[in-house]
Amino acid sequence: MHHHPQPHISTPASASFAATAAFDFKPAKRRGSYNCGRCGLPKKGHVCHLNSSTNPTSISTPTSSPSAVTVENSSSASRPPHAPPIRQSYTHLRRALSFDDIETRADSTERDLDDSDSPYPGTDLDPDNEMVSGGLPAGCLWEVLRRLPPAGLLAAASVCKGWRETTKRLWRAAEELRLMVPPRGQLRFIGSVLKKCPSLVRLSLKMESDVDATMLACIAFSCPNLESMEISTSNTAVNRITGDELGRFVADKRCLTSLKMEGCSNLGGFVLSSSSLSTLWLSDLYSLSKMVFNCPNLKEVSLEFSRQENDTTDLTTMVDAMGRSCPRLQNIHIASVRLSHAVVLSLTAANLRGLRMLSLVLGSEITDASVAAIASSYSKLELLDLSGSSISDSGIGMICNVLPNTLSRLLLALCPNITSSGIQFATAQLPLLELMDCGMTVCDPDSQNSPCDESGDNELPNALNNKLHLMYQKLIIKHSRLKKLSLWGCSGLDALCLSCPELDDLNLNSCKNLHPERLLLQCPSLQNVHASGCQESLIGAIKSQVSDSMASLENQFQCKRLADGSKRVRAPDCLSQEASDDKKRRKVAEQQCKVLVD
After folding, report:
1. Quick one: which of 191, 422, 432, 590 has the most CB atoms within 10 Å?
2. Where does the F-box domain start and stop, copy by copy (predicted)?
3. What fold, for 133-173?
């Protein structure tokens, strides 16, 4: 499971204050332009023949420029599905529900002017035939302004009447807004922004100030058609929203389909009733007295609880009620130290036929018996995350026996009872496996007291040397589809052999006892190897093997077989297929592997 995870807005606070000031700024009245705002001709005695009705419905302002706000449109070019960003620190486990983020979402929605999709759907307007001040085509101005950060967009409104009208159209057409809220004046700031965007359907807030019911009321009033809302909090912000206030908000927003909120430690309990809600993410939950889900169309739920030992949440009752009231659940993620075998039995009793992704994290009381219950009830799982559990190699065997034709992602980090034999068996029995996380599984309990850390006498008794040698394990993996493999913290490994042609990401962080001469990487598609905390000799061996693999891949373009296939010779430049070879070489250059060391 990814530590998460999961990348919002890294904008300095100064940009937020600049945007706030820009909203409050009222320019002095000035004489208007002497030229027509549409065709550029002198106004005196002039009757413009161009159509002035422009009602574009799609805009986009990318996040590439530093700003506190981002405005996007729904009619922009198609993008990959939204993946839940990595929103937590290294100590937090990442969200397994969206761990298939092989392709990252493109934040910039720049459109080619020659795109077949019109940026003005539903109108007959040709933007290149309408002119604004200075003779600039309206379509050209639109494409320029929609790429500005909000502070620049506000400044552009002060240039002239034509530009001001264009910026107003941009704000009115906005359907998605990503906003960083400054610590001071947050309510006034949000209200002034939201009133400019009556068509808003997707809202993402990064709060640097406290969140309360007044903020929710402002959002509910300003965004009547809101479909998706995400609220993330900084380290200094406090979410003061209670369960009753959140329940009223969800009940009032009839169009809301996605709700994601961090810092929910003050909920106390909640009753969520919605016929439209399909995605629900709540984190930092603590001691909930009640949890009622009246959401028949809920498909994805992620509940992350505080790791405090005095948490009194009854997870067994919660899971039982959720299973009965949400029959369409497909993805379930629960992270809590109170997860147990009883919770798993309540989940399996719900008989959720559409369940495809199951993530039960940090449940040290989840055992092989729990795995047996999961395997007997849900035989079509595509993702299974039992990180932090107490399952053993026997549990892995049950998983492999039941899910060989569906399981593509298996995450078993922080499971101390798993050995390299179990990992090796899983990769051999799961042909569709694309991602596997086994971090901190094969660990050396005496690694901190190993001879390399001793500054005194290096000669130890033979018995102790033999004991340390027996604790070390070797791992051999040969898989045709595996793309991501994580072995972080596996200090008990001293030998590793990988033959995975599709592997592009390998995590060997803190594999301190892995010997360079016992490392073999036959992975021509590798793009990233994480080797933080490893020995210098191991890092050198990784770089050497990766470079050799890239060199062999490059050398295949320098030779050519004769027509009769008799032997392989170096092809003259005049006989080579220059176009195709150039494309292949560029592809190889893009695939240059990076060895990441902190």
Report:
1. 422
2. 136-172
3. Monooxygenase (1.20.1280)
How far is 412 from 390, CA to CA, in rounded Å?
Answer: 10
Lowest mean pLDDT across 40-44, 180-184, 377-381:
40-44
Place of tokens 């296939």: 565
Contact 288, 306 (CB under 8 A): no
pLDDT computed for residue 241 by the predictor: 95
Whether residue 581 is predicted with pLDDT greater than 80 in this model: the reply is no
Per-residue model confidence as pLDDT tens digits over 4-13: 444 333 333 4
DSSP state of 480: S
pLDDT, tens digit, for every residue of 547-557? 866 555 455 44
The answer to whether residues 255 and 276 touch, using CB atoms and an 8 Å cutoff, is yes
- Per-residue tokens: 172: 């009115």
| Residue 17 to residue 553: CA distance in whole angstroms | 52
Q: Are 485 and 508 in contact (CB under 8 A)?
A: no
- 286 near 315, Cβ under 8 Å? no
Shortest CA distance to 397 belongs to which of 363, 362, 371, 435? 371
CA dihedral 126, 128, 132, 134 (to 10 degrees): -170
Who wins on pLDDT, 322 or 584? 322
Rounded Cα distance, 541 and 547, in Å:
10
Alpha-carbon torsion 449, 450, 456, 457, what sign? positive
Alpha-carbon gap, residue 407 to 434, rounded angstroms: 9
31 pLDDT band (50/70/90 cuts)? low
Which has the minimum average pLDDT: 56-60, 328-332, 367-371, 484-488? 56-60
Treating both helix axes as pointing N-terminal to C-terminal, what angle do 13-24 and 186-194 enclose, rounded to 10 degrees? Answer: 60
Contact yes or no for 262/208 (Cβ under 8 A): no
CA angle 517, 520, 524 (to 5 degrees): 145
Residues 595 and 506: their CA atoms lie apart, in Å, by: 10
Q: Name which of 61, 62, 4 is nearest 197 in CA terms.
A: 61
Which pair of structure tokens corresponds to residue 23? 């909203």
With cut-offs at 50, 70 and 90, classify the pLDDT of residue 85: very low
Using alpha carbons, select from 77, 73, 70 the residue that is nearest to residue 7: 70
> For the chain, what are the domain ranges?
133-173, 474-479+489-552
Cα–Cα separations (whole angstroms), residue 141 to 73, 146, 163, 164: 17, 8, 8, 11
| Residue 256 reports pLDDT greater than 60 | yes
Using CA atoms, how far apart are residues 291 and 272, in angstroms rounded to an integer?
A: 8
pLDDT digits (tens, 9 = 90+) for 208-230: 888 999 999 999 999 999 999 99
Contact 69, 178 (CB under 8 A): yes
Q: Do 507 and 439 meet the contact criterion of CB atoms below 8 Å apart?
A: yes
d(CA 209, CA 183): 4
